[in-house]
Amino acid sequence: MMVREHDTEPVPGLPEALPPGETILWQGRPNWRSFAVHGFHARKLAIYFAVLIAWCAASMVRSDDPLGWATQSLLPLLGLVPVALALVAILGWLASRTTLYTITNHRVVFRIGIAFPMTINVPFKLIESVGIRSYADGTGEIALTLLAGNNIAYLVMWPHVRPWRLKRAEPSLRCLSDVVEVAELLADALAGGPAAPRIAKARPAPMALDDRALDIRPSAA
């Protein structure tokens, strides 16, 4: 019988069985289409190709040999566009398929990694606040602002991290379809009661992680 990736997890998304007193409040994955756009920048890539094609077309019009210009430059580029965008879409789908975010009453767990699966446990005691950012497509991301003086390498979390915060990485639950509901649930769990004041509907505040305080380990294959 073939053993698929993560089949040996005692609890889906977790590296080990839940200890007594801990319960799962929510589990979910990124929306793969949103991940392709916001995580792997499919829209920016499409704009880049559009500008490049427009420049090539303008150069072709000015050329003494427009047909030769098109054959040498424009036609190969037009063939490259769908291939590049398809690869980005595949990356978004793979990232979604191999990701499982878990919120328990004690921690947030990231099971991430396409080629090198790993799980990262973020205990509630490290979380100072929760920030959310919504996108026009209805999805959004949640960033965890942790206590100061902690850090983790940006590349360890990428792309499950706030973009371009290289020095102080901000791990994030990316491209969630129900981002507001999940953020409210997490804030409520952090506060231990209703009407938690930890939601910030803006760009996530700066944060960092301490890999000494976190549990980072390869996932079972």
With strands numbered from the N-terminus, the spatial order across the biggest sheet is 1-2-3-4-9
Name the poorly predicted regions.
193-218
Largest β-sheet summary: 5 strands, antiparallel
* Residue share in helix: 25-40%
The CATH architecture assignment of the largest domain turns out to be Roll
β-strand number: 9
Shape: elongated
| First-last Cα distance | 14 Å
* The top level CATH class name of the largest domain: Mainly Beta
The CATH topology of the largest domain is: PH-domain like
Features:
alpha+beta, PH-domain like, 2 domains, five-stranded antiparallel beta sheet, 5 helices, 22% strand, elongated
Explain what the structure shows.
The protein is built from five helices and nine strands. With 221 residues, the chain is α+β, with helices and mostly antiparallel strands. The longest helix has 32 residues, at 66-97.
Provide a quick synopsis of the model.
The protein has 221 residues and is of the alpha+beta class. It contains 5 helices and 9 strands. It has 2 domains: 24-30 and 101-218, PH-domain like, CATH 2.30.29; 38-95.
Topology:
Elements: E1 24-28, H1 32-39, H2 42-62, H3 66-97, E2 100-104, E3 107-112, E4 118-123, E5 127-134, E6 140-146, H4 154-157, E7 172-176, H5 179-191, E8 199-201, E9 215-218
Parallel strand pairs: 5-8
Antiparallel strand pairs: 1-2, 2-3, 3-4, 4-9, 5-6, 6-7
Helix pairs in contact: 1-3, 2-3
